[in-house]
Backbone:
C-alpha cells in the first residue's frame, strides 16, 4: 500500500494535457486529426527544457499513449515532454 501512495503523490507533481490537435483532419483525403500529449512539471519557476518524443514503430504501428510513463517521468525531472502521434503508412 505504501508503494501506491508514493506513486500517486508523484503523479500530482505533473500537469498532463492530452489529445491536443496539432494538425486538423482532412476529410477530403480521409486523414484524421493528428494529436499530441504534453507532460509538464506542475511547479512554477524558470523556463523548462522541452523534449519532443516521436515514438518508434517503423511508421506503421505504435501510439503516443504507450509512452505516457515516459512523459510523466520526464516531467518529474523538471523537463516538459511532448509526445506526438503521426500518420502511419500507407496513410502517411
Residues:
Amino acid at each position: 500500500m505504501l508503494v501506491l501512495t508514493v506513486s500517486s503523490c508523484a503523479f500530482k507533481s505533473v500537469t498532463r494535457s492530452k489529445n491536443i490537435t496539432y494538425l486538423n483532419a482532412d476529410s477530403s483525403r480521409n486523414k484524421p486529426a493528428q494529436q499530441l500529449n504534453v507532460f509538464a512539471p506542475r511547479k512554477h519557476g524558470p523556463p523548462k527544457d522541452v523534449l519532443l518524443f516521436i515514438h518508434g514503430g517503423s511508421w506503421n504501428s505504435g501510439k503516443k499513449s504507450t509512452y505516457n510513463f515516459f512523459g510523466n517521468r520526464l516531467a518529474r525531472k523538471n523537463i516538459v515532454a511532448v509526445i506526438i502521434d503521426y500518420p502511419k503508412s500507407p496513410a502517411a
Q: What stands out?
A: The longest helix spans residues 2-11.
